[in-house]
Amino acid sequence: MFSKIKFERALTFESQGRAAEAERLYRELLVDDPKMPQPADRLGALALGRADAAAALTWFERALTIDPGFTPARVNLGLALQQLKRRPEARAAFEAAALRAPRYAPAHQMLGLFLWDGGDFAAAAQSLGRAMALDPAFSSAFQNDQIGRLSNCDWRGYDEAAALATRLVRGAVANIDPIAFMYASNLAADHCASGRLAGRRYPAMPPLEKRRTRRPGKIRLGYLASDFYDHAVAHAIIGVLEHHDRDQFELTAFSYCPAYPSPIRDRVVAAFDTFLNIKDFDDASIARLIHEREIDVLVNLSGYAYRARPQILSWRPAPVQVSYLGFPGSMGAPFVDYLIADRIVIPPPETRLYSEKIAWMPHCYHPTDDTTFRGPPVSTRQAEGLPDEAIVLMAYNQPGKIAPQMFAAWMNVLRRVPKAVLWLADGGEAACGNLGREAVAAGIDPTRLVFAPRLSSREAHLARHHLADLFIDTLPYNAHTTASDALWFGLPVVTCRGGAFPGRVCASLLTAAGFPELVCENLEDYEALIVDLAEDPARLATLRARVSEAAPKSPLFDTTQYTRDLEAAYRAMHARSQSASAPKGFDVAALDR
Length: 593
Known about the structure:
Helix content is 47%, strand content 10%. The chain is an alpha/beta fold.
């Protein structure tokens, strides 16, 4: 008992960063209880922490001498051998640990990561699958690592990782981060299953005190967001915020993002009646604040996106809770009543997959800002590193959206159209380097990939669209705000319709803009259409003139009417709540205004 108390005290010191005190107690324990393997194992872990793999190896070997069946030390032994670049011995240690303790998740986890690092992706996927099945908490860490690789266009093991993630989601074995999973699967059923698994992480919380009888007056509309700064969500929603009818709605922002200064943040703050910076509040306090302010309709703009805090909604702080814009899919949670969509991103037969009731917007669910800068070019092709006579194919999506199959299609286009160049967003040295190497592997001169650096001025960034000939989209996760920016500047967009919400957004944008003929149903047609346009400059110029003239006048960019439609949806949701009726899906165009 005394040894256990001392060991737990040493673990506490170690967790507090008090390594010297922890080490002293571990050494004492080796004397006090020489048959206890844990102190030697922890001394090895401390040595690994200070990058002394040789000393760590000695401690792990001692722990295993004391108890050959102590699996944590055998796993750690593999880590020490790996750091010492003794890979065959490291693999043997990990395999022995997994064999000796088949239900010890870290053994399968470390073996899987070791195999993955060595490029044995098929075997790695098997081991990682076992680890995730035994310990679902590990799955998010693994998937986040894969997303980190995708953001650098490092596609090693992409197919195996996607297959593993899909298998685990379909089997309801492990919760894969829902945003990360959108890059792995192109099927709505899989995305909704991922949302349901995520929703289970947020159990219903104790109900807040009963709301008082609602005071008469305007509908109190609350927007809960993590992206009220220079972010695509803020740029997309600002037009709606500024066009809201203040005679009918009172707007409150609940913002928990860092207060990064920018012109768009200034506009967002000014657009609300009340803007609350709640970044430093805990979830329960935010829920109480929303409740106390008697918000009628709470609109969550973040879903499961980066920094999102869905737990806030689990207290049911508002009688109507809506998911909108920032997360293109189902949250799979019982505390979300409605999802704003359209009939392209969620066709009616798929509503059965969604836990939310669907409010279908008349045209495109995605908002736009019809006051966005639309000025002339502020640069030249030469200044941007673009050949004057080239066909410039713009693909400004973030690098993480570039899947290997899409890049392969782009390389096929470059092979068939010698005058074409690919204009990409500069995602950093690693991403640019990896894309260049992939181009070489495909037999394409990497100088035909031109990378556009990030600019501090959004206006200067947008003006670069004048220098391109065609915008080409990604799959399974489309361009969203990026595609609407291109259309606003009269740049034609070619997309391939995906099998799930995030891969159908561009089809929705193009249809609302009046150009459904630029939506392809498969990659072969997508590639062929790009080639046809690129090889016919006169046709492409005519198309560009049509887009430039018609798109800005289309329903896609009628921000006032869009806002009226969205407000009609909010009123319908509020009315059902006031009549104590359960949420029900509806078509906004069919509402009695």
